[in-house]
Recover the amino acids of this structure.
């Protein structure tokens, strides 16, 4: 029978292993996320590139690293599954552009604020890394929580949360309102989204 000291020792070993294994994915995801954020921020710091080239770089980064198709399908729900394949494919392209334009628009206000990743943990149940980022300005601090998932040896951003407001849930509410105006017709939503994208792009590059 194990004595109390040996039991305590085994418990310590167990908790050390527990603490040192599950955060590994979160730490790996944090390193990956920092690289992607720095790529976007560097584009805004680089005053020698045109606004068009800057947006193209940001769009490419977003398309590669955000789960755009999954997010896009989620926010329109049944309207996606009931639409023809060609309409679905067109919608995904338009939604990815919409997402990139949204983030580029947010980043236009960037003025060399400092940021740091302050915490990361791995949600074993949902297989998602939760990474907290703090953005500092002269007057306040903003906390952003990124949700990052690994799929086929690659990381993807599946959501981010600012002031308890989720990007995905916000987009779902926004797109539900848009769908109501077109009677749930994804093809007509594509027309609306295309016009929105063209207008947003014009503002960003001019």
């Amino acid at each position: 029978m194990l004595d109390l000291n040996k039991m305590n020792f085994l418990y310590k070993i167990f908790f050390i292993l527990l603490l040192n294994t599950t955060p590994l994915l979160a730490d790996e995801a944090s390193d990956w996320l920092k690289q992607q954020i720095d790529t976007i921020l560097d584009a805004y710091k680089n005053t020698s590139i045109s606004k068009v080239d800057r947006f193209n770089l940001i769009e490419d980064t977003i398309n590669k690293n955000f789960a755009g198709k999954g997010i896009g399908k989620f926010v329109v729900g049944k309207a996606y599954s009931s639409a023809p394949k060609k309409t679905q494919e067109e919608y995904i392209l338009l939604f990815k552009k919409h997402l990139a334009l949204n983030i580029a628009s947010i980043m236009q206000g960037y003025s060399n604020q400092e940021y740091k990743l302050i915490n990361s943990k791995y949600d074993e149940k949902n297989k998602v890394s939760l990474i907290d980022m703090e953005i500092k300005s002269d007057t306040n601090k903003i906390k952003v929580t990124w949700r990052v998932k690994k799929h086929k040896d690659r990381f993807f951003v599946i959501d981010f949360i600012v002031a308890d407001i989720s990007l995905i849930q916000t987009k779902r509410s926004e797109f539900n309102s848009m769908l109501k105006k077109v009677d749930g017709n994804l093809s007509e939503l594509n027309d609306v989204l295309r016009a929105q994208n063209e207008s947003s792009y014009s503002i960003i590059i001019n």
In short: Residues 23-45 form the longest helix (23 residues).
